[in-house]
């Protein structure tokens, strides 16, 4: 089984996170300059087996694309050209930057380290990946017949 890689795309910097090979734990990988992202991914894919790539799609509160979404879509097209055999999935990334800031504070990170913008980017990518892993592991709802009581319900009879 290969890793899942998450991308928190930014116009200047991009945060990356990956799972372990069993796809259980999400870990911050790196923050790279966006101009070097394709080269970094080529090198990473040569050295690590990656089954899936997810990318955070910036949305507004009203569910419309944010201002940077058009640049992100251009990157997705570039990704598909360079890695045609690798699927890339878009996932909602609303609030990940503010959640990353809160996580750094809660984790006791010093103020000077919290100011390093690359830290926010890779922690945001980790949050995107953790959220994706959680939704992926949720059991799908089973259809039930109307005569099957739910736990705690009494049957008709």
Could you give the order of the helices and strands?
A: EEEHEHEHHH
CATH architecture: 2-Layer Sandwich
Count of discrete structural domains = 1
Strand order of the largest sheet: 3-2-1-4-5
Number of helices: 5
Question: What would you report as the Rg, rounded to the nearest angstrom?
Answer: 19 Å
CATH class: Alpha Beta
Number of strands: 5
Tell me which oligomeric state these chains represent.
single chain
What is the end-to-end distance?
49 Å
**Would you tell me the structural class of the helices and strands?**
alpha/beta
Spans of at least 5 consecutive residues with low confidence: none
CATH superfamily descriptor = YqgF/RNase H-like domain
Which fold name fills CATH's third level, the topology?
A: Nucleotidyltransferase, domain 5
**Mean pLDDT value:** 79
Range of strand content: 15-25%
Task: Characterize the structure shown.
The chain is an alpha/beta fold. It has one domain: YqgF/RNase H-like domain (Nucleotidyltransferase, domain 5, 2-Layer Sandwich), CATH 3.30.420. The protein is built from 5 helices and 5 strands, in the order E-E-E-H-E-H-E-H-H-H. It has helices spanning 37-47, 69-82, 96-106, 111-114, 117-137; strands at residues 3-8, 13-19, 26-33, 50-57, 88-92. It has a 5-stranded mixed β-sheet, with helices on both faces. Helix 3 packs across helix 5. The longest helix has 21 residues, at 117-137. It is globular and about 35 Å long.
């Amino acid at each position: 089984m290969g890793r899942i890689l998450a991308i928190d795309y930014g116009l200047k910097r991009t945060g990356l996170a990956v799972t372990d090979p069993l796809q259980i734990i999400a870990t911050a990988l790196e923050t790279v300059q966006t101009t070097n992202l394709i080269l970094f991914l080529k090198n990473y894919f040569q050295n690590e087996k990656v089954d899936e790539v997810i990318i955070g799609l910036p949305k507004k509160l009203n569910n419309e694309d944010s201002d940077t979404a058009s640049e992100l879509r251009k990157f997705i097209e570039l990704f598909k050209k360079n890695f045609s055999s690798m699927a890339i999935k878009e996932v909602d990334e609303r609030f990940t930057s503010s959640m990353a800031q809160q996580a750094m504070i809660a984790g006791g990170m010093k103020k000077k380290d919290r100011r390093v913008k690359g830290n926010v980017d890779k922690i945001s990518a980790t949050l995107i990946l953790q959220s994706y892993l959680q939704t992926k592991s949720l059991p799908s709802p089973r259809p039930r017949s109307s005569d099957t009581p739910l736990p705690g319900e009494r049957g008709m009879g």
